[in-house]
Amino acid sequence: MALAVPPQVSDPTPAEPAPATPRDDRVRRLAPLWCASAALGVGTFLDGPLAWPAAAAAAVGLWVLLRRAEPAEARRRRARLARELPAFVELFGAALASGAGPAAALGAARSALPGAAADELAPVAARLELGLDAGLVWTRLATDSPGLAPLARVMARSHEAGMVVTDAVAALAEELDEQARARVEDRARAVGVRAAVPLGLCLLPAFLLLGIVPLVAAAVEGLQW
């Protein structure tokens, strides 16, 4: 006789946010000093009755900006998640195509490709193994983890519509591969553009000395005659 899942099942401990690096902690800890310096600079630079209100506005704006700034570790983790997601979804789809259920397929993909995506999906695998409603689990993932939202939305729609999930996941894997290739190409083009700036700065003095200066000297010499 199968045991029924209790109606109230506590969720596993959610994944902890990425810890802030010492540099991030230092920036946040010294935020009052930066804000005071900004206020002093604006108040000293400006003159008149609006000087100190503008200084206060600068301090408040800098405070809000520093508090809302994303830690560097969180940015790196999001970048790792974006890089790993196409391969992870492909492994997940292969496990589903072999006949494994979503929970078992997640476990197999997490074992084969540990990393940011595997860590983010650990609570999802645990909830599915506990027998919680799969639609609610995937919908919650789409809200809690924007990086995994494409996979979560595909799984939630497939569960609600009763569709074959293997085809949807395979299509998502192809789409993510195309997006990853497009990002790599964009970065390659950006590197070329950024490399052209210092190259131009290096060639500019030679161009001036070999091309412009002789012309100016010849013109000045002609005017003297």
Number of helices: 10
Which geometry do the CA atoms define? flat
Report helical residue fraction: over 70%
Give me the Rg, rounded.
28 Å
Mean pLDDT equals 75
Instruction: Note the gap between the termini.
Output: 113 Å
Q: How can the largest sheet be summarized?
A: none
Weakly predicted, low-confidence segments? 1-23
Transmembrane segments: 50-66, 195-220
Keywords: Cell membrane, Membrane, Transmembrane, Transmembrane helix
Pfam family, one: T2SSF
Domain Type II secretion system protein GspF: 88-210
Annotation keywords:
225 residues; flat; single chain; cell membrane; 10 helices; mainly alpha; membrane
Report on the structure:
With 225 residues, the protein is mainly alpha-helical. It is 78% helix and 0% strand. Helix 9 runs antiparallel to helix 10 (165-224). Residues 88-210 form the Type II secretion system protein GspF domain. One of its GO terms (cellular component) is plasma membrane.
Topology:
Layout: H1 22-29, H2 31-45, H3 51-68, H4 72-97, H5 102-112, H6 116-120, H7 122-130, H8 134-144, H9 149-161, H10 165-224
Helix pairs in contact: 2-3, 4-5, 4-10, 5-7, 8-9, 9-10
Membrane topology: Multi-pass membrane protein
InterPro entries: T2SS_GspF_dom
Region (Disordered): 1-24
